[in-house]
């Protein structure tokens, strides 16, 4: 059944239904619609003859009503685009059965996830059954599921909590260029942080580093950069306060960056970097 409205009658209605029945009706509508079931008449042998209504078309779908006896049931709302009705009668005490009127109704959309802080949403259809995805701006890391689907159900909800994009405390970075934000940026960084970023580009490249924003507590909160993969490498510099907006350059294809904050006064920084080919690594040999 695919009409947006219709009538479902038990076999033989308004006469009595036969014994030993197992009947199934399935209503299939476009995604985004549910079904309102209104009972005009209902009478079955109590317990032994029953009508089971499922919000879905499979045996594992949710049962929203198991109806039996002489009482007229209240209306039911199926919150999926497929609804199944299964009727069973045993070998005795046949009754009049049921007269049901159904009407499709449009389901609500899931909540709009926009604005999505520090990132963007791919997809603009938030209706039932639709999937959207999330990506972060450079320098941020996605926390949570990158794709969400709007679920069927009484209330419209996504199948997972909304993800978020965060500037993390440290990480391993292999892109040729990028941005490193202070933890929690654009909010101020927390106290008691010791964050390490290892930046690695292909051999033969050095790394240019530029502080596009630097506003930390002078002296006590600082960024240290080493020209190599660990703290035993030569130190390029230590930067604090708001005075180090000049560029610096590594001779290695790896740099280690450490950020330290103490117990008072917060701030933030934005550091951009890019790998640059260094011809000194590939000097042609001199032939004699």
Structural class: mainly beta
- The CATH superfamily of the largest domain is known as Spermadhesin, CUB domain
Helix content: under 10%
Which fold does the CATH topology of the largest domain refer to?
Answer: Jelly Rolls
Largest sheet: 5 strands, mixed
Mean pLDDT, as a whole number? 91
CATH top level class name of the largest domain: Mainly Beta
Strand content: over 45%
Q: Note the overall shape.
A: rod-shaped
Number of strands: 22
Largest sheet, spatial ordering of strands: 14-16-21-18-19
So how many helices? Answer: 0
As residue ranges, the low-confidence spans are: 279-288
Describe the secondary structure blueprint for this structure.
Layout: E1 5-9, E2 22-28, E3 33-43, E4 50-55, E5 62-67, E6 76-78, E7 82-88, E8 97-106, E9 119-122, E10 131-136, E11 141-143, E12 147-149, E13 164-166, E14 171-173, E15 177-181, E16 194-200, E17 205-215, E18 222-226, E19 235-240, E20 247-249, E21 254-260, E22 268-277
Parallel strand pairs: 14-16
Antiparallel strand pairs: 1-8, 2-7, 3-6, 3-8, 4-5, 4-7, 9-10, 10-12, 11-13, 15-22, 16-21, 17-20, 17-22, 18-19, 18-21
Describe this structure as you would to a colleague.
This protein is mainly beta and 288 residues long. It has strands spanning 5-9, 22-28, 33-43, 50-55, 62-67, 76-78, 82-88, 97-106, 119-122, 131-136, 141-143, 147-149, 164-166, 171-173, 177-181, 194-200, 205-215, 222-226, 235-240, 247-249, 254-260, 268-277. The chain has a five-stranded mixed sheet, with no helix packed on it. Strands 1-8-3-6 form a four-stranded antiparallel sheet, with no helix packed on it. A four-stranded antiparallel sheet has the order 2-7-4-5, with no helix packed on it. Strand 9 (119-122) and strand 10 form a beta hairpin. Residues 279-288 have low confidence and may be disordered. Residues 108-167 form the Sushi domain. This is CUB and Sushi multiple domains 3.
């Amino acid at each position: 059944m695919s009409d947006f409205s219709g009538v479902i009658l038990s076999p033989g209605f308004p006469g009595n239904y036969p014994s030993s029945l197992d009947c199934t009706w399935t209503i299939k509508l476009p995604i985004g619609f549910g079904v309102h079931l209104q009972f005009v008449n209902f009478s079955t042998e109590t317990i032994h003859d029953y009508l089971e209504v499922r919000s879905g078309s499979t045996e594992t779908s949710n049962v929203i009503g198991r109806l039996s006896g002489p009482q007229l049931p209240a209306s039911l709302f199926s919150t999926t685009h497929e609804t199944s009705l299964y009727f069973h009668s045993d070998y005795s005490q046949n009754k009049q059965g049921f007269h049901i009127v159904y009407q499709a109704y449009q389901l609500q959309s899931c909540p709009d996830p926009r604005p999505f802080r520090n990132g963007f949403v791919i997809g603009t259809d938030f209706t039932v059954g639709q999937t959207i995805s999330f990506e972060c701006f450079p320098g941020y890391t996605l926390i949570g599921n990158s794709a969400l689907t709007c679920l069927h159900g009484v209330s419209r909800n996504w199948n997972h909590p909304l993800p978020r994009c965060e500037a993390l405390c440290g990480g391993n970075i292999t892109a040729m260029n990028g941005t490193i934000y202070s933890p929690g940026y654009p909010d101020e960084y927390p106290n008691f942080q010791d964050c390490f970023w290892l930046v690695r580009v292909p051999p033969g490249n050095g790394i240019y580093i530029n502080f596009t924003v630097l506003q930390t507590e002078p002296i006590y909160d600082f960024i240290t950069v080493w020209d190599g993969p660990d703290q035993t490498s030569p130190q390029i510099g230590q930067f604090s306060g708001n005075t180090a907006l000049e560029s610096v350059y590594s001779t290695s294809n790896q740099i280690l960056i450490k950020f330290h904050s103490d117990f008072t006064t917060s701030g933030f920084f934005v550091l951009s970097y890019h790998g640059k080919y260094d011809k000194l690594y590939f000097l042609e040999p001199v032939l004699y």
